[in-house]
Amino acid sequence: MFKAPQLRNVALTAPYFHNGGQLTLEQVVEFYNRGGDFNSIADLNVMDTDIGILGFTLQEKQDLVDFLRNGLTDPRTLAQAAPFDHPDLTTANGEALGANGYPVRRDPKHPGQSIDNYLHIPATGKKGGVQLPSFLENLLSGKAGH
What we know:
Layout: H1 25-33, H2 58-71, H3 75-78, E1 89-95, E2 116-121, H4 135-141
Helix pairs in contact: 1-2
């Protein structure tokens, strides 16, 4: 069993499922539409009886993804606008990279530990700021995890 998160702002929470097994909302809808990954006759005796092939049309799948992406995602969250604006924030974000590019630079003040890498998030006012990049945009830009 897994605790399922709410769907509010679901367009901003990729990758999906407990293991990140689906990268996009389109993949999530297709997964459920085909009845999961194990839906052969041999698998039926171990599957929950509530899981089955949905048989959505292409238009129905597109409409569902559109609802998830646009109907359940607050544009104020995406733009960091009030009430989701925030002050200037600095947070630890993994370890600082060494000269060799590996993520470990020894902290001379704390033997056995590495120096933290910090992420600076500039303040946004009530009118918002730059639109937040999606998980995939971060991944494709090479900035994920940095």
